[in-house]
Design a protein that fits this description.
alpha/beta; ten-stranded mixed beta sheet; 25 helices; 33 strands; 19% strand; globular
Length: 818
């Protein structure tokens, strides 16, 4: 046999289609290195689905390559799918090379989240002999901006906000060298060719001197400095100066909501808060989020930073500028809060910074690398050494990572139509995030905030268009909350008409429950305890303290908290005394206005008479089962908070009061009533006990702990009852109330002692920041059912609401079990 033919017969060729987070993370040079190491020929390139690799060589070398592809991937890479196809060998092929990106076809590539500066770049930046010494925008393929600067896929420099900066020769050499750490690092830059850092005054006029050192001196003197980061501006001030922090609060119109702080190092952070090992690992991760943890009594942070809270939100420096500031003798701990007036979206543009936050700061430290989209800091709660941290806000460093729906639904979608099923989910109204769906994955946006502010609503609309364009999603349906006056719902109607696609309405608390299922890759059924401040119920009332039998398709409302009459409706969410009066009415009946507790809550006789009359008659009252309003009312009865100056202020004060305190009740005490059918949980006995304890001078902290303990026991008792009736052994916890660490742990422990498996959030927040994920799972199943019935998709322009379909063994009326 001809030797050349014999050699070719021993050679194999394979094509790998790799999907996931594989662009902008050094994946192609990584493939180049391992292919070269094993003597393989071929090529690798980015495309609009991910990365394509063709490799040729001996079978054993290809096997080693495949193993290294998964086991040695770059730190920021995430392989979600790697399909391998055999191909005929190519005779005479020599060497391995990196091809130009293929920009054709639909966009299906994953976009990498922004990443904190890596150890290698940090070492170079602080090395006096390195050419990037002191460069505040240093980055490489392992770190730096990604999502915040990308304009389109594939992730190449012309498709980012770095397109306007021409590389110098040394940077170009690094960029084109496959063995260099900066090979195809799209934001690559240096002092000579990249963006520059400047310090300007509040009017935008440049200040002389080293910008970072001068800013550090100003911070040391108690001045407020606005600092441009990866996804927007922060406002910084020293955290140990009460007058400086009070001044910032006044300028920002943020009276009480806690500020986050940035610590110079992990050692400094450990002197501020009690951190679990998992929390420390999270703070050191490329996401580098804010972590909320119990404050240490001797922490060098003034009380004005987080008034009334037992926690501090702490993060480490994650941008080169932040590291340089702290190296330049700035204080060890800085308040680092979002650069905006309260409730407005984050400022990302330099000119906008002068207009919107120039008056809030003494100077602005900025750079001229444009930010494409605002990406606020992510926030997690440290749940202690035995528990994983809990996400509270999913944003910088974590988006736009995708979440895959339960596998059986993905398979069903492929059977329906391989290329169909793209959708849009618009979330709720508070703590909004939106999501697009393509195939079997859901891609959530960054935190967008409260849509009631006009600028936030405009940001919401922009984020929808942005996410659809970036991910090349053309929705075939749009999912929305059932609340008729939510701005997100109203916009969904407008967009559905514009795109001529159907609407899928999803009940708020069902979406919460489905979000937990989606995270865990499950479809249910599950007993879902969903507790929050408000959600539109199927009966037109306000829900928020619910036990649902839920799966990925439908739900049944099994039980709920006893409804409250809230005078003034939404006004009660701000004026917690109204919630307190509603609890007294529930506990003591129509004569509640004569109780001393009612007089203590509202001393003014005229105001008290007005509110109590409204409650007694039900005039201008909202009927609500919301657990959030119960927290508000108990906080008011205990004198902890009379008005919510920011969302959940009363609930946070109640949790802080209960922190580390044992309950007053004996183990067998039950200060709640369950109705005989298990459909209603009445906390009136607990309210009476709290009122009596307060009158007798019992410590407020003990009464606060008693409330948490008994609320957990009440829900656990009801879940046990329904678990036994239905033969289920899994429960899910969701809703903003389960941002409360104490309640979450207590209820989880109660259920687990009974052998009930507990599903909790680990990827998206329990609050409304996770709603869009739940909407995606439910809407997807609705679309599948409709298409299977009709043989095609939903009727264009025809709204579709998700209706309750009870289990066969349950009789229901209006979604409730009879």
């Amino acid at each position: 046999m001809n030797p050349a033919v014999s050699c070719l017969c021993e050679t194999e060729r394979r094509r790998w289609l790799v999907k996931g987070r594989v662009q902008g993370v050094g994946f192609r040079p990584f493939v180049f290195r391992i292919a070269t190491r094993h003597g393989l020929s071929g090529w690798v390139r980015n495309d609009r689905s991910g990365v394509t690799v063709e490799v040729q060589g001996r079978a054993q070398d290809l096997g080693k390559f495949a193993q290294a592809l998964h086991n040695e991937r770059p730190s920021l890479a995430l392989i979600e799918l790697a399909d391998c196809t055999p191909l005929p060998p190519i005779e005479g092929e020599r060497g391995f090379h990196i091809d130009l990106s293929d920009a054709g076809g639909p966009v299906r590539a994953g976009v990498t989240p922004d990443a904190a500066v890596c150890a290698d770049c940090l070492r170079e930046m602080l090395d006096g002999g390195d050419r990037r010494h002191g460069y505040g925008l240093i980055n490489c393929t392992h770190c730096g901006p990604r999502y915040s600067i990308i304009r389109s896929v594939p992730y190449d420099r012309p498709n980012t906000t770095m397109a306007g900066f021409t590389m110098c020769d040394p940077c170009r050499e690094e960029y084109e060298n496959p063995l260099d750490r900066r090979f195809h690092a799209q934001p690559i830059a240096c002092h000579g060719c990249g963006p520059h850092v400047e310090l300007v005054n509040s009017k935008g006029d440049r200040l002389d001197g080293d910008p970072i050192r001068r800013a550090a001196v100003m911070l040391g003197d108690g001045k407020i400095v606005a600092i441009k980061g990866i996804g927007g501006f922060h406002l910084a001030v020293r955290a140990d100066d009460p007058a400086a922090v009070r001044r910032l609060r006044g300028l920002k119109h943020r009276d009480a909501k806690p500020f986050a702080v940035m610590a110079r190092s992990m050692e400094v952070a450990e002197g501020l808060v009690e951190l679990s090992d998992q929390a420390k690992a999270l703070m050191r991760s490329p996401a580098c989020p804010i972590v909320l943890a119990p404050r240490i009594r001797t922490a060098s942070v003034c009380a004005e930073v987080a008034p009334g809270s037992h926690r501090l939100g702490v993060m480490l420096p994650y941008t080169p500028i932040q590291h340089l500031l702290l190296e330049a003798a700035a204080p060890d701990v800085l308040v680092m809060t979002s650069g905006n007036v309260s409730d407005e979206p984050l400022v990302i543009d330099n000119d906008d910074a002068v207009r919107r936050i120039g008056g809030l700061s003494d100077a602005i430290l900025w750079h001229d690398r444009p930010i494409e989209r605002c990406v606020d800091d992510s926030v997690w709660v440290d749940m202690g050494h035995a528990e994983p941290p809990l996400p509270i806000r999913r944003s910088r460093g974590e988006v736009p990572a995708s979440i895959h729906l339960p596998r059986e639904h993905w398979r069903a979608s492929r059977q329906w139509h391989p290329e169909s099923g793209d959708g849009l989910c618009v979330g709720g109204e508070l703590k909004n995030s939106v999501a697009v769906m393509r195939g079997g994955e859901v891609i959530l946006s960054q935190h967008l905030g409260d849509l009631t502010h006009p600028l936030a609503f405009e940001g919401f609309r922009k984020a929808i268009r942005d996410l659809m364009d970036l991910m090349d999603v053309r929705p075939e349906w749009i999912a929305h909350d059932l609340h008729p006056v939510y701005l997100s719902t109203a916009y969904a109607r407008v967009l559905a008409e514009e795109l001529r696609v159907p609407l899928v309405g999803v009940q708020h608390h069902h979406a919460h429950a489905a979000a937990v299922l989606a995270e865990h890759g499950e479809s249910g059924p599950v007993l879902a305890v969903v507790c929050d401040g408000v959600g539109y119920g199927l009966d037109g009332t306000s829900w928020g303290g619910e036990l649902l039998l839920a799966d990925a398709n439908d739900f049944v409302r099994l039980a709920h908290l006893r409804p409250l009459r809230l005078p003034g409706g939404d006004a009660a969410a701000r004026d917690t005394r109204r919630c307190g009066l509603a609890l007294l009415h529930q506990a003591y009946g129509d004569d509640f206005d004569k109780h001393p507790a009612a007089h203590a809550l509202v001393p003014d006789e005229g105001e008290r008479r007005m509110l109590t009359t409204m409650i007694r008659r039900g005039t201008h009252c909202t009927t609500s089962t919301a657990a959030g309003r119960v927290f508000d009312g108990v906080a008011a009865l205990l004198g902890l908070c009379e008005r919510n100056r920011h969302e959940a202020e009363a609930a946070m004060a109640l949790e802080s009061a209960a922190w580390g305190i044992d309950s007053l009740a004996d183990d067998d005490t039950a200060l709640f009533d369950l109705s005989a059918d298990g459909k209603q949980v009445d906390l009136s006995p607990l309210v009476r006990r709290i009122v009596a304890g307060r009158a007798a001078g019992a410590p407020v902290v003990e009464l606060a702990a008693l409330f948490h303990d008994q609320l957990a026991r009440a829900w656990a008792a009801d879940v046990r009852l329904w678990a036994a009736r239905l033969g289920l052994c899994a429960a899910a916890l969701s809703g903003g109330v389960f941002c409360n660490e104490g309640l979450t742990k207590r209820l989880s422990a109660e259920l687990e002692r009974e052998g009930i498996r507990v599903l909790r959030h680990r990827l998206v927040p329990p609050n409304d920041g996770g709603i869009a994920l739940g909407q995606a799972l439910i809407a997807w199943n609705t679309v599948l059912k409709a298409s299977s019935r009709s043989g095609h998709g939903l009727t264009v322009g025809r709204p579709m609401d998700v209706h309750v379909r009870p289990r066969p063994d349950l009789r229901t009326s209006g979604g409730e079990v009879l």
